[in-house]
2,3-bisphosphoglycerate-dependent phosphoglycerate mutase
Amino acid sequence: MYKFVIIRHGLSEWSNRFTGWTDIDLAQPGVEETKKYGLKLKELGFTFDLGFTSYLKRGIRTLEIVLDAMDLSQIPVIKAWQLNERHYGALQGLNKPETVAKYGKEQVDIWRRSYDIPPPLLEKTDSRHPINNPVYKDVDPSLLPSSECLKDTYNRSVPYFQKMIEPEIKAGKKIILSGHHNSLRAIIKYLDNISNDNIVNLNVPYCIPLVYELGENLKPIKHYYLAPNEEVKRVIEGIKNQTKIINL
């Protein structure tokens, strides 16, 4: 049996905005919660040989905080743009409740939650487009998105997972993956064989480690969060409410 740990980045400074590939840091509460769960992993006897994360600061910092709390800062970490958050196109940087007020909840829910309908495209001349970011200068420009739905995110994250991460798990290495809501939802969809219809209802809480126990064929035997169900539910409810319009 193999164990593999997934952790979504901690709460960021843009929790009420469509962040996507915008390189936003963790908020202080996110730093503190991430450290708490890093210590929890250590307390429960987890250890890791190799870490994976995205090119985005909030994913990188989350992994650094966890590994530091576990006294594992020395292990190698591989960063891959394929593990980035979903690109939210022209919605990136927009306030979520204000976007709901402008376009209506139904339309925003389609952009935010549907499996195969992307948000409006970002023009390639826009400074928010990854083609204009030197971080991605070595990536084939044709692969850099102007917008993505979850299906698009699946089509880049899952092949990377299959090619680069699964062989390391199979080789017996203990792996931790620090990722983002939609790249992790894509990988969870693959691991658990979740349908296109049902994946839209899946939420991944901030910084609570999700442990997968995998059989010899790397098919999941079971998975579980390292937190009480009430805590997982509370964090997920907060995520669901991020687009709510508050009338003051």
